[in-house]
Amino acid sequence: MHELVYYYPQGHEAHRENGHPERPDRVEAMVKALKEIGWWDSFPHLEPQELSSAVLEGVHTRSFLSQLEEVCARGQRFDMDTYTTTASWDLAVKTAGGAVAVSKSVWEREAKRGFALTRPPGHHATPNQAMGFCLINNVAVAAEFLIQEKGAKRLAIIDLDQHHGNGTQDIFWDRGDVFYISTHQSPHYPGTGQVSETGTGDGDGATANFPLPPFTGDQAFLTIMDEGIIPLLDRFAPEMTLVSYGFDPHWRDPLGNLMLTAGGYGDLVSRLCNWADQNCDGRIALYLEGGYDLEAAEACAQGVVAALLDEEWDDPLGAPNQPESTAWQAMFREAGDIWDL
Ligand SMILES: [Zn+2]
Hints:
Elements: E1 2-7, H1 25-36, H2 53-57, H3 62-74, H4 88-107, E2 111-116, H5 138-150, E3 155-159, H6 166-172, E4 178-185, E5 207-212, H7 218-236, E6 240-245, H8 262-279, E7 284-288, H9 294-309, H10 328-339
Helix pairs in contact: 1-9, 4-5, 7-8, 7-10, 8-9
The structure holds zinc ion.
């Protein structure tokens, strides 16, 4: 079994807009950092999997998918934030296929861990809307593939991006087969992800949100992981853990005000890997969402891959010179009441 497999989005540089923060350099900075530390060429890079329309349409409506293809064919914007180029449709379908390839490899135990540099990102894409720089919801497609084609019954998606993954939440809102858990800055874009949002119908109790006030840092993230997310995973008992990772909770990120360090990010992923080893046959894979500071992307990529490989690693960026706020504790008490934590 491979220790790790990657997906790298070949050709992704063709999805770009001058001056836009969601730019190809984000992925290239991660690759550079992983090459420098010797962890890039030593592990297989998977080709994207062909996607059936049944899997894509299990996540997005058919009318949205044709609309997205047309908007991309003209290279127009989907909304104020969300640009496309004439290459974007192919790249978005391919990167969703890359997310699937990584998931499949980990599901089938060909690889112990998976790390997908999915770009364009996905977690804001809802069943019928592209938004927030996101076109196709990669992690949702990966989960849907495992359910439709591999017989998965219970999956967890943990979203550690600085923004709430409203699209992923919407897609699985009334489904009991995918448990969505998110930490994100609040109030912030896109405005969703309050503690009280817990799903409906079959999905009642299969969505958990931990909205974080500005200046929440490592200690709070680790407490929420140990006393919130892990106990919820114990309860839901997924067969695989899929992680939406974005490096925008890092303290250097220009679009956010959370204070996570790269070392702290690695610690969060280590906790999830340990849980996966003990509870779901070690099945865990990560899928890129946001993160807009290149130095943070370099450090976080190393910190997170160190965690996936169970290697020691020193964070060159360290912590910001500012005390962590304790304002998150009120939110966590409210979550504790709702979830009986
Ligand atoms: Zn984000």
